[in-house]
Each structure stands twice: as structure tokens, then as C-alpha cells.
């Protein structure tokens, strides 16, 4: 079984030819396959951000082969892998980047290490596995090649997983780690909607007063609102501003949310 789509998620940026090279490899090997660029603006080497973006996006993409490359360990002993899930295939480094997306697509059903030299570029750069390993593997999988041909099977339990983000819940509030900061400066927390259930209409977020609302306009202009975002995570925004700047936080920072005194 093949796929008509390949998606690309990377930290390559847009000012160099890295993304075009990956597109070109896929086009030469699988010219009938269409490519969706999820983003190439993941903060450099920020694996957790890339994993969150990928996991929150793949459920809305057509079934396909999803390539993700945020790979500070490129050229080292870290493995290149392909993962099968009920909703598609994922290809990239074994550094925790792919597993959340696989879970979003139904869970890891099988995994292989990418060791078949016939599936890779004739000469593999030690610093550009997106072009020389992951893109050609994705193209072959999209055209219907068997996952088993890519390399030996791996135990899904042995795949690298990211540490669980901080989440501590109490009757009078919670503390959650920042997962991502988006283009608008909205702060997504590692907290499910349930932590906001039965909370009062105003809360203190990182020491600032915030409206407990459902959307940005529930807070007056310039004020903070805490709400459930489109990815079903608790998030913090400023109506007409940047919550990340107001709170002074970045991914990985803990944010305390408390009931008012």
C-alpha cells in the first residue's frame, strides 16, 4: 500500500536550500506524490517543540508518510527510524520527535531502523540526513515499498521518548510547563482542559491577573486570558498582545496558575 502524500516538519528555516533539497529528492523518486510543508520554522534543535507541532497537526493531514527532522544528534549514534501507526507512517530521528505524533495517529504499531543502503543516498552526509536518509526513505514508503525492507525491526518500547512535562495540580491551582509559544506569542501549557474545570472566573497566571475565558475577546484589550486552545491544551494569551512577553516565559519554563487571594 502506498500513499499520495508526504509531509515535512523541520527546523531548517527558509533562507537556505535545505527544504528544497528534500522536496527534490522526493520528487525525483516519487514524482506523483504531493508534499505538505507543515513548518520549517521549529526553533533550531527544539525537539519538544517539533514533537508538539507534529503531534497536533498530523490528525488533520491526509494519510501519508510524515517526515520530521529536528535533529541535534545528526551524524552520531542516534538511530534513524520509521514508525508505523494506524493513521500513517513517520520517518525521522529516534530522539523523541516522532512518538507523540504516532500516538496521535493511533499508537506505535511497528518500527524499524533505517539501515538498508539501497534506500539511502549513494553518499550520506553526516550532517544532512533529512536529504540523504529520511527523504528517500519517505519517497519509497509513499510509493508502496514495505516498511520491513527499510531495515531491522525495533521494539516499540525501546524508542526514545521525551520526558513527561511538568504538571502539578492542587485544589487551588496548578503548575504546568510551557510546551510551545506560537507566532502570536500565545503560551501553550502541558495541561489538559480538566485542570480548568470548576476554577473561578479570574485566576493568577505567573503572578498576573487573568480572565478564565473561552477565547481571546473574553478579556479586555491588553489583558490576559487563560483558555483551552484548538489543540485541546490549556493556553495563555493577551488580547492584542503577546503572553510570552508579558509572562517572561519560554518553552520548558513552569507557569503557576492560582486562585486569587
UniProtKB/TrEMBL annotation:
Residues 176-255 form the S-adenosyl-l-methionine hydroxide adenosyltransferase C-terminal domain. Keywords: S-adenosyl-L-methionine. Residues 6-151 form the S-adenosyl-l-methionine hydroxide adenosyltransferase N-terminal domain. It comes from the Bacteria. InterPro entries: SAM_HAT_C, SAM_HAT_N, SAM_OH_AdoTrfase, SAM_OH_AdoTrfase_C_sf, SAM_OH_AdoTrfase_N_sf. Pfam families: SAM_HAT_C, SAM_HAT_N. PANTHER family: CHLORINASE MJ1651 (PTHR35092:SF1). Belongs to the SAM hydrolase / SAM-dependent halogenase family. This is SAM-dependent chlorinase/fluorinase. It comes from Micromonospora inyonensis. The lineage of its organism: Bacteria, Bacillati, Actinomycetota, Actinomycetes, Micromonosporales.
Amino acid at each position: 500500500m502506498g500513499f499520495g502524500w508526504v509531509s515535512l516538519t523541520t527546523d531548517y528555516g527558509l533562507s537556505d536550500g535545505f527544504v528544497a533539497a528534500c522536496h527534490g529528492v522526493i520528487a525525483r523518486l516519487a514524482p506523483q506524490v504531493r508534499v505538505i510543508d507543515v513548518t520549517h520554522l521549529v526553533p533550531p534543535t527544539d525537539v519538544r517543540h517539533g514533537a508538539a507541532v507534529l503531534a497536533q497537526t498530523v490528525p488533520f493531514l491526509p494519510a501519508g508518510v510524515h517526515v520530521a527532522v529536528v535533529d541535534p544528534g545528526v551524524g552520531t549514534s542516534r538511530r534513524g527510524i520509521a514508525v508505523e501507526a494506524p493513521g500513517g507512517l513517520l520517518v525521522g530521528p529516534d530522539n523523541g520527535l516522532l512518538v507523540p505524533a504516532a500516538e496521535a495517529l493511533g499508537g506505535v504499531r511497528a518500527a524499524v531502523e533505517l539501515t538498508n543502503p539501497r534506500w539511502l543516498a549513494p553518499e550520506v552526509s553526516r550532517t544532512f540526513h533529512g536529504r540523504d536518509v529520511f527523504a528517500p526513505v519517505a519517497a519509497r514508503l509513499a510509493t508502496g515499498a514495505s516498511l520491513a525492507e527499510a531495515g531491522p525491526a525495533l521494539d516499540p518500547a525501546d524508542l526514545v521518548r521525551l520526558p513527561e512535562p511538568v504538571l502539578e495540580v492542587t485544589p487551588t491551582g496548578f503548575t504546568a510547563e510551557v510546551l510551545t509559544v506560537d507566532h502570536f506569542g500565545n503560551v501553550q501549557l502541558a495541561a489538559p482542559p480538566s485542570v480548568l474545570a470548576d476554577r473561578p472566573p479570574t485566576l493568577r497566571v505567573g503572578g498576573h491577573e487573568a480572565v478564565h475565558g473561552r477565547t481571546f475577546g473574553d478579556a479586555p484589550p491588553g489583558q490576559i486570558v487563560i483558555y483551552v486552545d484548538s489543540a485541546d491544551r490549556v493556553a495563555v494569551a493577551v488580547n492584542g498582545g503577546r503572553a510570552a512577553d508579558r509572562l517572561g516565559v519560554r518553552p520548558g519554563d513552569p507557569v503557576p496558575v492560582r486562585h486569587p487571594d
